[in-house]
Known about the structure:
The protein is an alpha/beta fold. The protein folds into 2 domains: about 1-145 and about 315-344, Quinone Oxidoreductase, Chain A, domain 1 (Alpha-Beta Complex); about 150-290, Quinone Oxidoreductase, Chain A, domain 1 (Alpha-Beta Complex). Helix content is about 30%, strand content about 25%. It has helices spanning about 40-50, 95-100, 140-145, 150-160, 180-190, 200-210, 225-230, 250-255, 280-285, 295-305, 325-330; strands at about 1-5, 15-20, 30-40, 60, 65-70, 85, 90, 110, 125-130, 130-135, 170, 195-200, 215, 240-245, 255-265, 285-290, 315-320, 340-344. The strands form 4 sheets. Strands 3, 5, 6, 9, 10, 17 and 18 form a 7-stranded mixed sheet that branches. The chain has a 6-stranded parallel sheet with strand order 13-12-11-14-15-16, sandwiched between helices. Helix 4 packs across helix 5 (about 180-190) and helix 4 crosses helix 10. The longest helix is centred in the middle third of the chain and has 14 residues, at about 150-160. The radius of gyration is 20 Å and the shape is globular. The mean pLDDT is about 95.
Amino acid sequence: MRAACITRHGGLEEIAIRDVDTPRPGHDELLVHMEFAALNHLDYFVTKGWPGLELEMPHVLGSDGSGIVEEVGPGVTSFKAGDSVAINPGLSCGKCEACLAGEQNACKSFTIKGEHQAGTFAEYFTVPESNALALPAGFPPDKSAAAPLVSLTAWRMLATRARVRPGEVVFVHGAGGGVSTAAIQIAKHLGATVITTTSTIEKAEKARKLGADHVIDYRSTPDYATHVFKDLTGKRGVDVVVDSVGARTFATSVRLLRPGGRLVTCGATTGPSTDLDIRQVFWKQLDILGSTMSTQKEFREAMRLVFTGTIDPVIDKVFPLDQARQAAEYLLQAGQFGKVLLRG
């Protein structure tokens, strides 16, 4: 089968289409014929590599995907060939103390599809039965591929970790990112006022259509923290900041918060290290909350919002599978608004 693979770590030029063996479904796995797959920044980080990352090469990239079940393993009871499915990219052992307690993302062997295991950028991919979710009749397969990783991540950040309540003010960095487009919609669903940033008039209009109450152009207003504090919150600060950017925005996130506010972070796309005035953390008695992926329960809660239209997965551009490298290059330019997809 054709797949977008790497054979060694390096830059995006290492991503190429190769013929690899079609995987076989295990005892409790599905073999899925990929219709759509979605890119994430994780694909770039895996391509680049990091100390301790040891992969069997060639390695197939890709975390998100949707498609048609081609074959099921002998232990599968909930699906059959021909079913349309989306997947939860978070993989866990299912047997440890954390998994049995329903905290799959705390499993010691937790990983993400496409990270340590073969991913979805291929004509076929496998997934455990427990990580598959049947699509409602007629639900678009492109939307079902665009939704899972960012929606489950944003749902856990806002609903579980930050516990956003009606009437609170939530600040979301970078409206055009996948997690951000989901976070804006989820925050509104939870009853919050949403402030976000972006870089163009066109993106600002799209952010407003998602529900953002205030959109700031960070290029024309580089000191947007002062603007938010003085002009938008009456010198109070915001209740919750959603930060998936990392080094470039983390110190600003702390400045944005009111006393007793919560900063919830799920990533560091601009780098893992930053200068931080620790005095602001203890003087304002802030909560800094980490969040990684989700539990199976949270995945299904988030996808229920997707299937009922509360969250509308935003798709920026679709590339054919053969152009996986070009799609990754496009994503890293940071000009998109929403998800970048591959079509099988």
